[in-house]
UniProtKB/TrEMBL annotation:
Residues that span the membrane, as ranges: 28-52, 72-90, 111-129, 135-157, 164-185, 197-219, 240-261, 281-307, 314-334, 340-358
Similarity comment text for this entry: Belongs to the purine permeases (TC 2.A.7.14) family.
Protein topology in the membrane: Multi-pass membrane protein
Coiled-coil features, chain-numbered ranges: none
Gene Ontology CC annotation, any one: membrane
Name of the protein in question: Probable purine permease
Amino acid sequence: MEEFQGPEPRSQMMSENSRSLELNQRKWWISVFFCGFMIFTGDSLVMLLLNFFYVQDNRSESDQDRQYKGTWTQALIQNAAFPILIPFFFKFSSPNLETVSNQTNNGWFRVLPLYVSLGVLVSVYSKLYALAKLYVGWGILVSTQLILTSLFSAFINRLKFNRWIIISIIFTLAADFFGSPAFAGTPDEDETDAYDIKAWLILIFPTLAFSLSLCLMQLGFEKVLVKTKRYGNKKVFRMVLEMQICVSFIATLVCTVGLFASGEFKELKGDSERFKKGKTYYILSLVGLALSWQVWAVGLLGLVLLVSGLFTDVVHMCASPVVALLVVLAFDFMDDDFGWQRRGALLGAVLALASYFYSLHKTKKKEIAELNKRENNNSEA
């Protein structure tokens, strides 16, 4: 009897390890879908409110002297609502509070330069995106972004591409190109010039900054926040809130300085008076935009933490056909409908997400298989 009693605790422990891994993977999948939902929700609300804002402001019918103004305000709005995240940050308990208190002083020397550099980078692409959307439109802006994110992911994050990820990127580019939503801030064709050097620079720099920030955020999570052991050896959601709060704080400071240094703050009163729906709706639209940007940003950072910057960008871009449908339903833009091209783009977005999710599924399945293999080898030994 004694010969058979020895292996039982070991086999029981092995099965518990396998069940624990499956449970963690289930929680991981739930977190991924939740963050993806936040990105889709944030993207939809931001585009709907931006269209409402620029329709009420008559921006598409403005001359070039006023067409490209208000970009510092939009950049500030994108980052300024971060204080609403502070209560959630303290509500999420840390898995290792003792480690946090012991490592806080030492950890901040490594974390602070990361947050400052990311905050400046976020302020740069917030400002340039606000300008680029008015100058060159929406669709080509986001498509260029995914190509740069793929390149940065390969060189900075050492991401290994397989055929399913490549297929997902191709479908995503097609979905965004044919399914980008209409944008009321784009000037009329007779009020803007063809793509010149200035337009291409305005197009490239914000996409470059955004793609770089995604990959640096992933690198920051993996090489700084985890290795400082401020939250133990695990990736926890509190890291997302900490990074978003600190980075948005720095970006808000930079955008506030830009708003006052450029003199744009003097135009706020005129903007509110010119708003068709009145000052109340002007303020509500800006508040709604600020909150929507935070929903989008938390979902974005959550997927960067859980998966990668490239996957995050794929999810962000796959929201375009859905947002286009909502814009068609909400606004009566001339020549804007959900035709066969956008229906095809919606199908392409589904296929893009399915391809990437299948790649993630294979990776998670491989982890369980490797654990079972190790357990079998240990039991045989």
